[in-house]
Amino acid sequence: MTDTLDESTAPGQAPQSKTLGDVGLFAGLTQEDVAEIETHCSWRIIAEGEQIFDQTSSSTEVYFIVEGGVRVLTYTNTGREVALANVMAGDYFGELAAIDNRGRSARVVAVTHTVIASIEGRQFMKVMEHHPTVAIRVLTRFAHIIRTLDSRVAELSQLSENQRVLAELVRLAEPDQRNPSAWTIPLMPSHKEIASWAGTSREIVAQTIGELARDGIVERRTMGLRIRDWSRLQLMARAGDVTH
């Protein structure tokens, strides 16, 4: 069930203590600029497991995650569901439909209690026109997605199964917010999801991560994975070496 954040909050007004200021897309904008963008936003609480939109939806809103996280999913020709990415607080999604006005290309569900703000696609285009730094960041994001897809295609023919799993872990890793010198995967995808990206089996994913844990390179957490030896993980991903 989707809830409003605060019944006393007027339309277009951010609820108390919630702001777009921590969304990376708007970094560097003045408080006044961010506040003006917020006047065009709607705010919602999304429950864990709730769908935000489906692949058949014709909506064009862009969503900004203020708290929590979502999973982007698609379907194969046989109807099998495949996870494409996890998008966490401070990030955004849904921009493709806003730009080409052709509807959704994926399904999105909340993976935890999530607070989002959304803006109509036409208004998002105006934001990019008025703030070129925002437009450049969107282009940079597209470039990253294309490069990642190119890498995965190349890896399928060039790398071993273990090596492809290691490469996916490196791609998922990000600096730990509490310790910028450390790396972590805050929301670890399932073995099935990693297997689908790496073109391998869940058993190979489990075996590879298990060996990393036994060697002290990674450490499992409740929802994520702490990388204890980032340099070695990178080296192993390049070499494809998971032997002891």
Characterise the protein shown here.
The protein is of the alpha+beta class and 244 residues long. The chain has 2 domains: 124 residues, Jelly Rolls; 80 residues, Orthogonal Bundle (Arc Repressor Mutant, subunit A). The protein has 8 helices and 12 strands. The strands form 3 sheets. A 4-stranded antiparallel sheet has the order 1-8-3-6. Strand 4 and strand 5 form a beta hairpin. The chain starts with 30 loop residues before the first helix and ends in a 5-residue tail after the last helix. The N terminus and C terminus are likely disordered.
Short description:
The chain is α+β, with helices and mostly antiparallel strands.
Secondary-structure map with pairings?
Elements: H1 31-38, E1 41-46, E2 51-53, E3 62-67, E4 69-75, E5 81-88, E6 92-93, H2 95-100, E7 107-110, E8 114-119, H3 121-130, H4 132-158, H5 161-172, E9 174-176, E10 179-185, H6 191-198, H7 202-214, E11 218-220, E12 225-227, H8 230-239
Antiparallel strand pairs: 1-8, 2-7, 3-6, 3-8, 4-5, 4-7, 9-10, 10-12, 11-12
Helix pairs in contact: 3-4, 5-6, 5-7, 5-8, 6-7
